[in-house]
Every structure is written in C-alpha cells, then in structure tokens.
Amino acid sequence: MLTDAHEKCIEMPTEIRKVQIVAELSANHNGSLDRALEIVHAAAEAGADAVKLQTYTADTITLDCDNEYFKIGPGTPWEGKRLHDLYKAAHTPWEWHAKLKEEAERLGMWFFSTPFDETAVDFLEDLGVPAYKIASFELVDIPLIEYAASKGKPMIMSTGMATEEEIKDAVDAVRGTGNNNITLLKCVSAYPAKPEDMNLATIPDIKERFGVEVGLSDHTLSNEVAVAAVALGAVMVEKHLTLARKDGGFDAEFSLEPQEFKSMVDAIRLTEKAVGAPTYGGTDSEAACKKFRPSLFAVADIKEGEPLTRENVRSIRPGDGLPPKSYGELLGLKAARDIARGTPLSWDMVNMGS
Fold this sequence. Notes:
This protein is of the alpha/beta class and 354 residues long. It has helices at residues 4-7, 33-46, 58-61, 83-90, 94-106, 118-127, 142-149, 164-176, 202-210, 223-231, 258-275, 327-330, and strands at residues 20-24, 50-55, 110-115, 132-134, 155-158, 182-187, 213-218, 236-240, 295-298, 313-316, 334-335, 350-351. The chain folds into two domains: 4-56 and 91-275, TIM Barrel (Alpha-Beta Barrel), CATH 3.20.20; 284-351, Type Iii Antifreeze Protein Isoform Hplc 12. It is built from twelve helices and twelve strands.
C-alpha cells in the first residue's frame, strides 16, 4: 500500500543537470529521532539535494555470535567491538524512516537509503524511495544488487576496495535486469580517508571504462577533495553530516559539521559553474575585450602607390584592423590611396594586383 509520503515523493533527477549533493545521516543520530530530524534540517539549510540513510538491523546484516569472525579487528574506529553489538547500536530504526523521508521531502530534498538485504529492499519499496544505494562492502553481493536493480530504479553503487573485475560484475548485474541507470561512486573505505589515498583520476576512467555516471563518496574531512572530484566530472557527492563531532557517535570522526558541509556545498556550486561546458570563441563577458586584441595598423603615413613595408605597417593594439595573420600577405602590396598614420588597415586600402 502506498503511503502519502510515497505519493508526494520527490524523485531523484532522471537526468543529472547539476551535481547532486547527498547528506549521509548514517549512525550520527546517536539513537535519537529528534537528533536525526535535526540533521535533516541541517542538511537542508546547508544546501543538500538529498538525505540518505542505511537500512538494516543487527540481525539482517550479521549474526549474534561471539567467535573471532564476528569481532572487529584493528584499522577502523570500531576496533574491538562485536559486529552485532555495533550494528545494534548504530542502526536507524525502520519505524523512523517514514518520518525522516517526509521531513526531507517537505524541505525540498529527495530521500533514499542503502539496503543490506532483500527485506530492506522490500521495506524501502513500500516506502517509495526513488533510488537505491549499494555500499562499498556490499558491491560484491551480486544477489542483493540484482534484487535491488530489478525494481527499475536508479542504482548508486560505491566502489571502495573494489577491483575492476568486481566493479564490472556489479555493473553487469544491474544491466542484466534491464536497468541501465547506474552511478558509480569513487570511494576509499577508510574512516576517515586520507586525501592522498583518493586517486580521483579514477573518476573519468570509471566513466570511460564502464559507460556510467560517476560521483564521489567521500570520507575525508576535506572540502577540497569533493571540489576536485567535481572538476573531474563527478555528478554526485555523498558526505556524512553530524551536528557536532564532539557529540561522538559511530560515524562522527569522519563526518562534517553543518557549517563545514555548507562550505563544501558552496565550493561545489562555484566549481560546477566554473567547469561549465566545452566552449570556444569567448564568452559574453569577454566581448568588450576583443577590441584590445592586436591588428594591423599603418604606423607611418603611406602615400597612394607606396608599398606596405615592415616600417609602415605593424601589428599593434587595438583590434580594428586586419588580423595579424594577414601581415605576410599584406607586405609588398601598394596603397590604393593615401593612408594616414594610426589608420586600421583593410583590404580595400591596397591594390591586390600590385
């Protein structure tokens, strides 16, 4: 049964005409619906286009098991925790989703989520999300990708840790369902990620290699990385947002605060304007300056019948005369009439047959 929120759903743009900036809420709600709603409001005020959640429970994403396989080792902020305990504390309650979606859309943003199993896909289908996100870790879960892609909605997939072959498998899985609406996000699955590890040159390579739109899922604390990604062709930037890192939480360490997020949005908007489209011939703002290009002028008085030489013709500013490329052709021709010093030259001032 469709909910009111579904019927009024703000859709992801089918053709991305501007960089879509996604605020990832993730676990930054710290177990509070009110805080989650505050983050949604902060995202809207910062200029985000969309809000994203993660849809799982501890039991849908892992097992409640004490053996060593289910304990988190070194190298992440969650070292030493059991997977089940981590996800039980960090998950976003499914009963919050509709309220968060309604609020995001009321504020003009589209809303979507990352499912981690088929039950989450079914839940999000009933909720009426306009797109699905596949996390970097689940990029190898081909059955999950196929199931989500079979719903016919845009598929956004992070590529952190993935080999070229694994990315190809995921893309082929989506296309195998007849769904060709794919955006791959360049990502480094480190928390936080180092800018020097980002290798953003991969963005245009992914676009060419796989024939898809490309964006960035960014775990650095740097705005410059997102700006550089947009300059390289990223059509989407996903970034974690928290109210304050000092409040703590599972994802706070690699999340931006609202003013930082807004600064990133502003920088991206300026960058996409500067990137623009391939253009030649100058812009409207340059039109007045064309007059100050060099052109060919008489720099001494030239009598009728007198030849044009290097002594009486030069390429100087402004641009009212013949273009400088005509200089060699003009030299040696004779003046068809008297030409005063400081006169811009034109072809009707010379005898072409002389």
